[in-house]
Amino acid sequence: MASLLCLSLLAAAAAATSPGRLVPFDLLYADGVRAYLARDWARAAELLQRALHSYAGLRAARRACRAACAREEPFPGGPGGWEAALLGPVLQRAGCLQRCLGRRLRPAPSAHRASRAVRRDFERREPYNYLQVAFFQLKKLDQAVSAAHTFFVANPQHLQMREDIEKYRRMSGVKSDSFRDLEATPHWEAYETGVQHYDADEYLQAVARLEESLSEALSALEECRALCEGPWEDEDEEEKMQPGLYEAIAAHYIQVLKCRQQCILEIATKPGRISATEDFIPSHLDLLQFAYSQVGNQTLAAECAASYLLFYPMDEPTLEKMKQYRTELGEDAAVAARQSIQHYVQRSLMEKKLIYYAVEHLGETFNDPDLWTPDELIPENLKEKHREDQEKQKQETLDVEERGKRGPLPFEGIAVTMDSQQMNGTQRVVFDRVLTESECKDLLRLTKAAGEAGDGYRARRSPHTPHERFEGLTVLKAMQLAQNGDVEWRDARLLLQASEKSRKIIESYFTPGKKLHFSFTHLVCRTAVDGEQEGRMDLSHPVHADNCLLDPEGQECWKEPPAYVYRDYSGILYLNDDFQGGGLFFTEMDSVTVTAEVHPKCGRLVAFSSGKENPHGVWAVSRGRRCAVALWYTHSQEHAEQERVKAEELMKQRAVEQDQPDGDKHEGTDRSSRSSSEPRAPSRGTKPADQRQRPGSDRKQHPKVLRARDEF
Ligand SMILES: *[C@@H]1O[C@H](CO)[C@@H](O)[C@H](O)[C@H]1NC(C)=O
Ligand SMILES: *[C@@H]1O[C@H](CO)[C@@H](O)[C@H](O)[C@H]1NC(C)=O
């Protein structure tokens, strides 16, 4: 469930909830899409907007009725014992809800139950995707831009929309404040600005924004929880006998409880992202506590610390600070946690207790979304598993720390020029003398020959900058070129060998005893385009991290597709230094604070872990041609590079042929017979950005493929 709480629509929604006005949103949506497909743009825009209003109106009505019915007079007492006492109020609440919704929704509430597919479309802001096209066709640029932006915020992987937005940015009639998010989630905006102020040591502003974020988040949470109460979605309908009265009530109740518990994940997930920020509410309190102490308000700092302790009562640093605040404030100053947080924690604990009871006794399952759930709440049989998970995690942490003790390098003559400390970071290293001068020359010859061979291998504009040309060669492609006689076998083989040598070095240095597989290998040259370097401001490769999506505003790196999340280590093996620029640099998570730089030279291998600890980029190549082997590795066998297996097979085949006395002749026949039946290298790194079902198949926006982000 995505919270599509749209402030600008709420006013309209309130009007739309008066009887007789609220046409079910799925019907409006279907008509809108039909009009869209018929290219009736005006009608499409009108219907789609009405669909969004109706959707917001329905949610508003449900929310309002739940709140109103919660305030009803208690069920009149009387005889009937515990059953009447328990179920009487339930019936009363049900009656109240039915009356309230009946008053607000015409046609009847039961007409407002859209299919799951349509609800998903609304949760993903799909109507805005159609709307932007319709508005554009109607020449209503301002509305087209805000619809495009609203859609893109929730679908940042959507390439077509990215391009459309770029186009809008370049259009002269478009103002920058047209890029509005019509479904903005207020707590995320406040949270990100708050964290930015916090990181910039601007604690007064940080406090204001984080307080705003916390209170918006808590109120969004209430909305999400209210919507959990129904209508009940029957997962696998009809088939089964319906359970008995109490089992049915219990099952529905537990479903609602679990839904409410999951709400924190929705609130803590940035629009357009998949993964929730861990400990979202507690971390607000932790940040606020520190910020308040920095601006000199110990009273509020202590209150935040006390609130934080409700989640983690044994947290040593916070207990320590509590002690300090108590001394500073005087022993008789009352220090208490916030009411709102007490309420939040108590209610959550009550729900968890009930859910875990059902897990233990009713065969339910539960993925607890919180890290702070106290141990004693978790049933014994689950604890076992919980403990194992913790053990495993501890082991992994140990593994990471273990890496401090480096294994011996498996080759003679290689030097560790800089370690993590010298590179002002973690899990970074520079080796020298991995290749000899003559090996660098051979590999450069390979890039030259490959560039001259026809066969589709030609320098093209860099995907990152128009000021550079870009050539890339995979190991398989190199083998195929050798088979065709376009490059020398020994040079192609050297590419295989050099990358394997790098793999062994990196494995033994960072993860001795844990196998690293190739994930992708790419021999890459970047060439400055003559006459296009004047006043150039861009980078050869913008700052990014290799296995997560860097989000500098949020100071986060999202380990989710389309990033290559399974990549664990990255390396660059340099081949030359006769060019200008092209240095590698690492930054903080903000993507602008440079922490270390590495200058390319023949035989230098720089290696680092692929995660958020190592955002990096490449300075512009302003003259000449920079060549290097880009290397990515993974611990995951299933993501091992398949091309490499094929390349090695070709290599072996070649060796066998060489052993035959008339091997040379074979090469001639190879050339003519293979070139046509050659297996084509699969295009790498392309993933459909968008695989969902849409209403209407011949849309303007087809699912797009992402461009390989595989180029250093
Ligand atoms: C801390 O903030 C509270 C609420 O704004 C205020 O009432 C109190 O006076 C402040 N204390 C100090 C020491 O500034
Ligand atoms: C690490 O930081 C120091 C101090 O800012 C700087 O002088 C040094 O060049 C940095 N190291 C690298 C490899 O860039």
TrEMBL record:
Broadest EC class assigned to this enzyme: oxidoreductase
A GO CC term attached to the entry: endoplasmic reticulum
Annotated protein name in UniProt: procollagen-proline 3-dioxygenase
Biased composition annotated in UniProt, kind: Basic and acidic residues: 383-405, 653-673, 687-700
Region (Disordered): 383-408, 653-712
The organism of origin for this protein: Corvus moneduloides (New Caledonian crow)
UniProt keyword terms in alphabetical order: Coiled coil, Dioxygenase, Endoplasmic reticulum, Glycoprotein, Iron, Metal-binding, Oxidoreductase, Repeat, Signal, TPR repeat, Vitamin C
Coiled-coil spans in chain: 200-227
Cofactor: Fe cation; L-ascorbate
EC number(s) on file: 1.14.11.7
Segments forming domain Fe2OG dioxygenase: 521-635
Family, as annotated: Belongs to the leprecan family.
GO BP: collagen metabolic process
InterPro entries in UniProt: Leprecan_dom (IPR056585), Oxoglu/Fe-dep_dioxygenase_dom (IPR005123), P3H (IPR039575), Pro_4_hyd_alph (IPR006620), Pro_4_hyd_alph_FE2OG_OXY (IPR044862), TPR-like_helical_dom_sf (IPR011990)
UniProt xrefs under PANTHER family: LEPRECAN 1, PROLYL 3-HYDROXYLASE 3
SMART domains assigned to the protein according to its UniProt record, in alphabetical order: P4Hc
A GO term for molecular function: L-ascorbic acid binding
Signal peptide coordinates: 1-16
Keyword DNA repair: no
Bias (Low complexity) ranges: 674-684
